[in-house]
Amino acid sequence: MKDPSMWFPDHNYHESMFSTFKRINAKEHVVGWYNTGPTLQENDLDIHGLFHDYVPNPVLVIIDVQPKEIGIPTKAYYAVEEVKESATQKSQNGSSS
């Protein structure tokens, strides 16, 4: 049975692709990553956290590859850190636009 909380990123692949992208597309910038959703999954925030190694404020775009409505089937999200009153607890919430 598949466990959606289990995932294994290929760090070597990401490092290689990011390095290659920077050499070939020096004028372009990586702004985030995408998922072919159609909705956010439980582990997307964990994966999103990994992209902070490549981009300071990465954007997550969910692309619905089987849309049921006419239009651009995407939703974009970015993380917002909230500092609690005690200033010792931080939480990360996803915001969409």
UniProtKB/TrEMBL annotation:
Organism: Vitis vinifera (Grape)
A molecular-function term among this protein's GO annotations: metallopeptidase activity
PANTHER family found in the cross-reference section: 26S PROTEASOME NON-ATPASE REGULATORY SUBUNIT 7, EUKARYOTIC TRANSLATION INITIATION FACTOR 3 SUBUNIT F-RELATED
InterPro entries linked to this entry: JAMM/MPN+_dom (IPR000555)
A Pfam family hit: JAB
Domain JAB1/MPN/MOV34 metalloenzyme: 2-57
Official protein name in the record: JAB1/MPN/MOV34 metalloenzyme domain-containing protein
